[in-house]
Design brief:
With 479 residues, this protein is of the alpha/beta class. The chain contains 15 helices and 23 strands. Bound molecules: NADP nicotinamide-adenine-dinucleotide phosphate (NAP).
């Protein structure tokens, strides 16, 4: 019998095991550190039944009471921060602190901040007419059961992004974490169930290729799916959800362009660009993934970025010196290697990196490639790893067209001293969020989401909250 700690599913407030378990790997060592219940479609049925039974009571709670309970979940996260941070590093590999403080501390700290902020959001009744003829009110009502499916790169944070607005709006939830990183989420759901009524928040875990995800996306008892993950899986989910006409929020892949104008201070801007591209090893949806640099300072900026890549400390996330950890899983490491091999074949010059680092874990050297344009995999596809193409341009109007010539549309950035010019260019980028002199920073009150094949809908703030509701218009004639 394995000595590894075992994490259960949580259905109707109770821990539930399955006939079998699957192992969760620590990517810094390649060894298993935990086991998790291998659920199946029958567990999805049980979780949906529990969530449906809990829905009327949860939806009928006074709004202030739901707000208070969500505030209490922020306190639960805060009280358990050290344990949750440890689990985040064990399953994702990300350092406790990390490059630019993007690490396990940010993941749990962000989860707390988003939970607090979401507890304070409200969608009051909107009155669109109130006169002698009639009163017309627009009400926001919860949908019912929301199914949440999360990826492996920010497992706790993204689960919080899904769960909190769903609950705040009065829905109940069935949550399925990635089989690669289910542990922090499982522990959080266990803790949350000491605060929430049974059945309000349920967790079903499934092994690789399990029926759990498809069972959720086809389930007639689930009204909406909120999904964060790859565009390929997003397409499958949309197809599966069609039969029951589920509402969808899809936060999918990104291949964000950053455009550096020639007026920047190269030395000042280089560390910011480096962190925007390499934090969490490039495994963030809104990392900077294609860097377009004006010819006037191209060589100078490349030299700065290479110096930063060579200096950054890559290692076990529990070593306080580590700024970057391993790539989260072997398949992703092999994908990065395949894209690097393609870049070689396409004539890319590797200014640094381009190889695995020694050790049993999935470590890869931060890699900067020049000499490629659109038409190569490294520029056109999201590598989701520590490898950045730096692309030369000389005409600003032309580079906007090149940056937009991509099927993704999550984020983008303009880097410039002339903020008026930068803002004008920003609005010409085809993506859901544009940053000027920053990239990838999100906040709980500003909507975030992708256009084109980066997704459907937005998260955060009132716009995000509204996605977990349906509208009911009530018209009362006055006589
Ligand atoms: P993924 O492979 O698409 O998996 C995401 C989730 O979907 C996992 O829980 C997975 O379960 C589940 N899943 C797989 N097949 C399914 C199916 N047929 N039906 C229902 N669920 C299914 O994505 P990932 O590799 O974990 O995450 C990386 C991707 O997420 C990147 O493309 C990144 O850009 C994107 N992302 C986007 C955002 C955003 O806000 N736009 C944020 C973060 C990440 P299993 O793991 O059990 O297979």
């Amino acid at each position: 019998m394995s000595e590894l700690p075992l994490y259960s599913m949580i259905i109707d407030g109770k821990p539930v095991l399955a006939a079998t378990t699957f192992d969760v790997i620590n990517p810094a060592s390649g060894a298993a550190f935990a086991r998790v219940a291998a659920g199946d479609a029958t567990h999805v049925d049980a979780a949906v039944a529990a969530a449906r039974a809990a829905f009327p009571g949860w939806a009928a709670l006074p709004d202030g009471e739901r707000s208070r309970l969500i505030g209490a979940l922020a306190e639960v996260l805060q009280a358990n921060m050290p344990e949750l941070m440890r689990l985040v590093t064990l399953e994702t590999g990300k350092p406790q602190d990390g490059l630019n403080h993007v690490g396990a501390g940010m993941e749990v700290g962000g989860a707390i901040a988003w939970t607090q902020a979401t507890s304070q959001l409200a969608l009051p009744v909107e009155v669109v007419q109130d006169n002698a003829e009639a009163r017309v009110e627009v009400h926001r009502k919860p949908l019912g059961v929301v199914g949440s499916i999360t990826p492996w790169n920010w497992p706790l944070m993204i689960a919080i992004w899904h769960i909190m607005p769903a609950l705040r709006a009065g829905n109940t939830v069935v949550l399925k974490p990635s089989e690669l990183t289910p542990v922090t989420t499982a522990r959080f759901v266990e803790l949350a169930n000491a605060v929430l009524p049974p059945g309000v928040l349920n967790l079903v875990t499934g092994a690789a290729g399990s029926a759990v995800g498809p069972a959720m996306t086809t389930h007639p008892g689930i009204e909406k799916i909120v999904f964060t993950g790859s565009t390929a899986t997003g397409r499958k989910i949309m197809g599966n959800a069609a039969a029951t006409l589920k509402r969808l929020t899809l936060e999918l892949g990104g291949n964000d362009a950053g455009i550096v104008l020639p007026d920047v201070d190269v030395k000042a801007v280089a560390p910011k660009l480096f962190a925007a591209a390499f934090h969490n090893n490039g495994q963030t949806c809104a990392c900077l993934k294609r860097l377009y640099v004006h010819a006037d300072m191209y060589d100078e900026l490349c030299a700065e970025l290479v110096a930063l890549a060579r200096a950054v400390k890559v290692g076990d996330g529990f070593d306080p010196a580590s700024e970057l950890g391993p790539i989260q899983n072997r398949m992703q490491l092999e994908k990065v290697e395949a894209i690097a091999a393609d870049a070689h074949r396409a004539g890319g010059q590797f200014l640094c990196g381009g190889e695995r680092l020694p050790g049993p874990g999935y470590f890869y050297a931060p890699t900067i490639v020049v000499g490629l344009d659109e038409g190569s995999r490294l520029v056109d596809e999201e590598p989701f790893g520590p490898i950045l193409p730096v692309i030369k341009y000389s005409d600003v109007d032309e580079v906007i067209v090149r940056a937009n010539r991509n099927s993704n549309g999550l984020g983008g950035s303009i880097w410039a001293r002339d903020l008026v010019r930068a803002a004008a260019l920003a609005s010409r980028l085809e993506c859901g969020t544009v940053w000027v002199n920053e990239h990838g920073a999100v906040q709980p009150d500003a909507p975030f989401g992708g256009i084109k094949q980066s997704g459907i809908g937005v998260e955060f703030g009132l716009h995000g909250l509204a996605e977990f509701t349906s509208i009911q218009t009530i018209k009362v004639m006055q006589d």
